[in-house]
Design brief:
With 337 residues, the chain is mostly helical. Helix content is 80%, strand content 0%.
Amino acid sequence: MRSRRRAALRTGLGIALVAAVFAEVLPRIASYGSVAHRLGTVSAPWAVGLTAAAFLDIVTAALPWLAVLPQLSFVGALGFTQASTALTTVLPGGAPLGMALSFGFLRRLGVGRGESAFAVALTGLWSQVSILVYPLVGAFLVFATGHLLGSTAAIAGASGAAAAVFVGLAIAALRSQAATLRVGDAAAGAAARLARILRRPPPAWTGGTLVQLRTEWLGVLRRRWPSLTAATLTNQLSAYVLFEVCLRAVGISVATLPPGEAFLAWAIGRVIGSLPLTPGGIGVVELGLIGSLVGFGAPHAHVVAAVLLYRALVIVPTLVVGTVALVGLRPPRSATP
């Protein structure tokens, strides 16, 4: 009961935050009338470019999973990734919920329990570390221009430090059976708490399960980490390409906002989006992106228009494709990470 109350409270606070951002904060940065006018200036060639970039962002989502589980079909990998992403966009729970759903969908696709758990853990680790490294890369790009603010540099530094911690824990877990057991038990405990909140059965695996799989999957990791790294970067950087196209489509020139500054703003938005503050990061991601871009001197109405366009092209196609995929997959009733 207490868990349900906490979940309901978090949901209510999330809805209030989203409402405050869109009803109070954004109109003070730029009126929705000026934003609509700016969106109306998007030309037909730019519209084609936006469509192509959004399509690229969708289809590359399957690549990391195919790198780890080559037995999956492209359609199957794309379908379950879009289904799980669509659900995490509308449900609270953040990355843990997404991992739980991915595990359940993989099981429905016939992937073994141990193989599914390893794939979810590995793709999740590669994704999160990449997200945490991007602000550091962006800070180096902007530092060369002399426009790097102290607050932005602090965010980038903290993000890079967090990435180092993630990598260190992963290496420690893989190098030692005792560490693997501790990390696995901690992950199983977190999954059990999430299962209670979602009123799902607890996970059927423990740290001991990961210890048993450790030796087998170390060999798999050594063979596939280059392709997984390339696939993860391709998938995530396709979203940056979409972001760049949105900026230029509404009239923000490279002279006004260089690509390095755009990349840093996008990277900070990715970090914010990985935090379980609201479903899909709605509200907080928009605010983080807009604040970063305005801080770099980009015009307010153009920035709000570009960010809202980008977020719409990230969220809406995923909801559509994910909903279609759910018809075949259906949400797993007993899926746990």
